[in-house]
Every structure is written in structure tokens, then in C-alpha cells.
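Thread: quick sanity check before group meeting

JM: Hey all, I'm pulling together slides for Thursday and realized we never actually wrote out the predicted structure for the chain we discussed last week. Dropping the sequence here so it's in one place. If anyone has concerns about the input, flag it before I start.
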Amino acid sequence: MLATWWAELSPVMRLLWGVTLTASLIFIIQTIMTFLGADADTDFDVDVDTSMDGGDLSNIEGGSNLYTFRNFVNFFLGFGWTAILLQSQVKSTALLVIIAVLVGAALVVAVMYLFKWLSTMQQSGNINVYKAAVGCQGKCYLTIPGERAGEGKVQITIQGAVREYNAVTDGDTIKTGVPIKVVEAIDTNTLLVEELNSYII
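JM (edit): ok, ran it. Output follows.
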């Protein structure tokens, strides 16, 4: 029966079902891995940086960056299921696509804020960032624009654990993978950093 159902689908619907089921499976796996402390996420910056971080919920804030594998999965999850469920009710293909895109984007935003909230709860409950982060060292995780032109991300070792924070810098752009040092905690989620070797001539 399943084979018959699949054979009766149009090529477009086969593609839509394939993408949606794949996104659903990856979403389930990601969710399980996240809450088991084995978060896997791929972030697209100037370079492609693949992180296999585990240990605590602070690392799941990586989902708050827009261009992540997790967010692409979330988008296609919302887009695909919306298009499939509404295809018989919405006759206009253009309208169906618009609705599906909006639902996919809304799911991405919702998950980003959920993960940011979980990360904030984890960090604020365990660490006084203003006291503990200054002077800590780590590496740039996502490129940090120079002159505070935007935010990147860093991973630092703080109180014996590797944690991820948003970061800005007063100096030149800091590329992914460059060692950094925390100069100041701007708030509980954002640090002011500098290149660790920036003072070396």
C-alpha cells in the first residue's frame, strides 16, 4: 500500500515528502543529542565550521545564529509539513508556498529564542559572568566583526567548563579559530574580547 501511495504521487510531492521526512528525522536526532549533551551543529560563516560540542546546555546557543544547519532543518520542517497539510485546502500554489515559507521562518525564530532562553537560564544559574569571565581564554567560534560592527561567537573555558557566548571586539575582525581573551562582560550573554596575541609585536 505504501508503494502504491508513493507511486501515485507527483514528482513535486515526492520531493516535498522526501525533504520533509528527512528534516523530521534529523530534527528528532538533533533534539535527542542536544538533551543528552552531544549537540551537533554546523554553522556557516566565511568558513564552514562544524562543532561537536557536549556537556551542557550553554552550548546549544549555537542555534541562535541564523545560518546554522539546525535552522535550515527547522525551516524545511515547518515549510514541508505546512505545504503537505494545507495542499488540499489551499488551491493557489503561490499562496501555499508563501504560507509554508512564513511558517518555516516562524519555526526558525521560535527555536532560536527557545535555545537562547535555555542557554541564558543555564548560564545565569551557574556562573556570575561579570566576575568569572574576565581574563578567560578561548577561541573565536564564529567570526567577530571589528570595531563592534556586529557580533560573533566565542568558546571560552570558564570555571572548568567550555561555554559559548556572543562576542564583540574593539579591534580588528577576529576570524574563526583565532585564540581570544575576555576583556569585559557586556551582559550575561555577550563578551568584549581581543585576540590573545594582539599585544605581541
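AS: nice. Strands lie at 38-44, 48-54, 137-142, 152-158, 161-169, 179-185, 190-195. The longest strand covers residues 161-169.
JM: adding both to the slides.
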